[in-house]
Amino acid sequence: MKLKLITQPSSFPLTLDEAKAHLRVLHSDDDTYITSLIEAATAQAEEITSRQLVEATWELYVDGLSESIELAKSPLIAVEKIEYVPDGSDDFALLDASLYKVDDISEPAVVYKRANAIYPSVSNEANSVRITFISGYENGVPAPLKQWMLIRIATMYENREEIVVGVTPSILESEYNNFLISKYRVGRL
Question: Going by fewer Cβ within 10 Å, which terminus of the chain is more open, N or C?
Fold first, then answer.
């Protein structure tokens, strides 16, 4: 299985102004640095949760058509198309949408073979099936995820190193911050 990002998100879940307000930064000297922290916090949140926060298009490559195929990024907005390499061919062909159904309620979303459907013969080559889908939050990223990101950004901004030297060593993670993101982790079936 291989996952490939096709279209980059056009924005981040947080704006520079939101991050600066949380940091209480009034100047523009650190705008580039704070923007990089927003990008890093977004990547961390997406990695921890297996979610796509801002709408993006993905291609998932698998080795064949099976009864069910999990889509690796949640929440699913739409499956655009499923293509396969027919046995004896080198080019992708479009799979008829009447042969499968998409369970977009489960997380991760799953493409299922319809009952009594007969899939075409597919090449035995690796990555012979390509599923193009769109994922991300259509109505904005949930507040707990944004809050988690703001705390991560503040921690990275105030502590530019992994270790804080002081009277006693300190851990920069907190139960509160872990709680904010924990319910958004997508489990695997």
Answer: C
Same domain, 117 and 147: no
- Token pair for 161: 């190193």
Closest alpha carbon to 50 in 102, 116, 3, 111: 3
Backbone φ and ψ for 74, nearest 5 degrees, come out as: -115, 160
Q: How many domains are there within the chain?
A: 2
Of the candidates 161, 157, 163, the residue with the CA atom closest to the CA atom of residue 29: 157
Q: Calculate the dihedral angle through the C-alpha atoms of 159, 165, 170, 172, rounding to the nearest 10 degrees.
A: 10
CATH of residue 31's domain is 1.10.3230
> What is the per-residue pLDDT across 125-155, written as a single tens digit (0 to 9) for each?
999 999 999 999 999 999 999 999 999 999 8
Q: What is the pLDDT of residues 119-129, one digit of tens each?
A: 999 998 999 99
Residue 90, burial from CB neighbour count under 10 angstroms (0-12, 13-18, 19+): exposed
Taking the model in full, what pTM does it have? 0.84
Nearest to 69 by CA among 156, 58, 174: 58
Q: Name every residue whose Cβ is closer than 8 Å to that of residue 133 and which is 6 or more positions away in sequence.
A: 57, 58, 60, 71, 73, 76, 77, 78, 79, 80, 109
